[in-house]
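Section 3.1: Structural characterization of target chains.
Under the original work plan, the team committed to producing a structural model for every single-chain target entering the pipeline before any wet-lab resources were allocated. The record below documents one such target. The sequence was received from the expression subgroup and is listed exactly as submitted; it comprises 406 residues.
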Amino acid sequence: MKKKIIFSVIISFAVLSSFSQGWWYRVSDVNLSARTAAVGFAIGSGAFVGTGFDSSSYRRNFSSYNSTNDTWNQIQSMGGSTGSGLGRNSAAAFVIGNKAYIVGGQGSNPFMNDTWEYNPTSDSWSQKANFAGSPRRAAAAFTANNMGYITCGQDANGFKNDLWMFDPSANSWTSKAAFPGTPRRLPVAFTINNWAYVGTGDDGAFKKDFYKYIPTINSWTPIADYGGTARYGATAFILGTDGFVGTGYDNTLTNRKDFWKYTTANNTWTAITNFGGTGRSNAVGFAVGGYGYVGTGYDSLPEKDFWKYDPLSNGIEETEKLRSSVKLYPNPMHSSSHLEFDPESLKAFGNISFHLYDITGKEIKTTDHINTSSFQIERMNMSKGLYVYKLIADDKLISSGKLMVE
């Protein structure tokens, strides 16, 4: 009896551990055209997304996100009413106090160096001193000690690793100690307690090295390599004293959906629950109210969906709620049957799929990426007999059973 109890405890612990790295929930799509290589940032309790490329145009329009009621509202486009021609993607963005700054990118000019300040209180844009480094796109940006920083990127002559600091009170740029890794484009950056962390990217090869920058002594130190595969075009957000980095395009030539948490206390990377949407690169990320948010990007097409990461959720409740709500009727089937489940599950899982097998185990029907909680299964050319169905959510078996066809 003791052995059985111990075994049961071990199994229970293993199951709980598999759900212990947070959970992703789908929130409202941004009310802009689907796009890639946009910018995203948070100011106070609000978040903002704009610029980017939407398959036809470089964009300058922006929307703000209210996480309390899960709504998006369009705001003043970059540059305001006189900003025609400022559309771009692959710009860099940082926030200082209650204002955001957009720097560089590519648009009508393949390498840009202008700097724009956004004031959410007045919903207005004003141009600031041009970036003092070479005009560029695909740089990384971060904020520390009320200063903004731009590093790496690509200019007309190739990849860069210089570092520049913007002082908003003086409206000026100052050169700082260069990023110690190889010159590169599309790295990712985040700041924790006024220390910056920069890594991954593309220098002609995919990169996974990471470095810490301490602004007060203008010094860089290598830290543990990124925990996932080498990649570029990843995204990041910060929760507390932890940095979260994921998605991107990696050395397997795949758009990724894995996410990793960097713990500053012990310089380690730990895998968390995969991003809830499709694997993608050049998405945006930010944090509001203790949650991380990731959306837009490119997964073979530009996207506009957004997902919220809750570090305290474990997915067990969501899985059980979906499992207990599944209904398949009528059973036996004559001309068709219906599959139903809790509609809230569509927000808790990235891919819910239905699979039907004949008695030999051959899969005869598949419905992937189900986007409705009630759909019809047509008999079509199915012969009389016994079939087996499975409902799968993000590679987890949720429900299975027999379906009789008469």
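Confidence is low (pLDDT under 50) at residues 1-19.
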